[in-house]
Fold Carboxylic ester hydrolase.
Amino acid sequence: MKTKSSIPVFIFVIIAYVLHEVFFQLEETEVIKIRCGQQLKGFVSNSRDGRKFFQFLGIPYAKPPVGELRFEPPQRAEKWTGILDATKYSSMCPQLSHIFQLPDGHEDCLFLNVNTPRLPKNGDRGKPLPVMVFFHGGLFVHGDGFLYRADYLMDEDVVLVLVHYRLNSFGFLNTGDDVVPGNMGLKDQVMSLKWVQENIKYFGGDRNQVTIFGQSAGASCVHLHVISPMSKGLFHRAISESGTALSPWSIRSNPAEQSARLARKLNCPTSSATDMVACLKKLSMQEIMYAHREMLESFLNPEILLRDSITIFVPTVECGNITADTFLPAHPLTMLKDGYFNKVPWLAGANGQDGAIVSIAAVRTEKSSQLMYDNAMDALPRILFMHSNENVTRLKDYYMTKQLDIRDEKSFNKFTDMITDRYYMNGLRDATRYQSPDAPVYLYIYNHKGKFRPQNAMIEVQRKYLPQLDVAGFLLKTIWYQHILGLEAPFYGVGHMDEVAMIFPLRFLSYVGQDHQDYEMSKSMVKLWTSFAHNKKTLKFRNVTWNPINPRMKSLKYLNLSLTPSIIEDPFTERYDLWASVHASPNL
């Protein structure tokens, strides 16, 4: 389909952003006061459809976790003096840059951004608005609030909060005891939710109507808050987009071993957890992040899937003494089975081909396809987080053919289904079975064929040259083919993160304006998400009524999210039965 403009939207956004920063003065808000008389000022923006809203950036919600506070639970932020300038973005938490693979960000990163269409005036607060708190994705190694803009959601009556939290080992180191019990990134999120409870009324928000939502790793975080006793009472509804606490990548089963491996790579002692952590605290952020580089390599080079690497730091069960500061006292599956979770409404789902983000990386070239097939019994247990070769063989026989080729639609789709089922659908179904008898659960499958297709970068960035050149080549090719020639990008399915572009403008990547082909879908998605936050008695999507799961029904029903929506019977029953028969439990 020919685009209406030959100028790439994201190039226009970049140019506009730079010009705005250089030549234009922000329209600042009045100074507002929050808890304990602290003062701050933000700036005025306009939503997609022209509504004025107010942004407050870089608000500290916890002390900087530096020095002796590294790997420690977050502490309440100290009171600032004067007027906080909340017009500039704060630093991201330590991570490796996508292109240059160099350490980026700072440890002083525990900030949040607040966006609101309404500020209380002269003590007259009016009716407070529901609050939506977003936790970004990025497999617990990447991400920050800068990517996600508020323009779409600010057309609706909600207050939006975006949270930075610690990533990598800084947020998820676990020594397997009480020295560093783990989950500091999740405890950061808890601290941010406490901040919301204490302060959101000053931004026109209702502390009694808080919806947490997230995508991918952020979706898993959301579900973990649904389960955690530490988060009880801090939120009232939850949305998980493509990820649950039962996704096999969500929980690490051997954290002490993992921490020791990192320490050995950094020449720190491992015989004593106390000595090991003391050593790690003395190292620079850059030294620790360089030790994580092999993790990023595994994303960009499928051959590394076939050899050992330092595993990614993710949430873990806390094995020390259970206290008020324990976020996850047992495995999420155990807690769900025992009924130990927060009984709140949960809206959750996945994209039709979510697993393509992995399958593309594995079979994007003829060499990698052959390598994957020839070494399937070595690679699949790692990719699928499974240990039994007998069970893996059954899955291989069902999902994989000898012609494992991204150019062969049938074989590629079956391989993608295997990843989608294991990473997203199985955990979603299991969690629904345990939660739906006690709280409303709404299930969806996102099937809209939108213009934004981030997984296509996995095809183009093949590391034949420097990664910087690969990425630059992909961007130039995208500009030429899609935006100048008006050709449609290759379609490998409705993939991971596609739906995010309907909820948020993604800075420098995607903007769905009023003349965009996805505008109607985006507006409908935003309306649905915010209706859930408003606790609407009946949810509707483009005139299709969406009811919660009936726990007494054997077959689950999903809302098919597309421009022609419908309620569909569970399309994964046969495949789910196969996974159940091979006892593919979460990563215990």
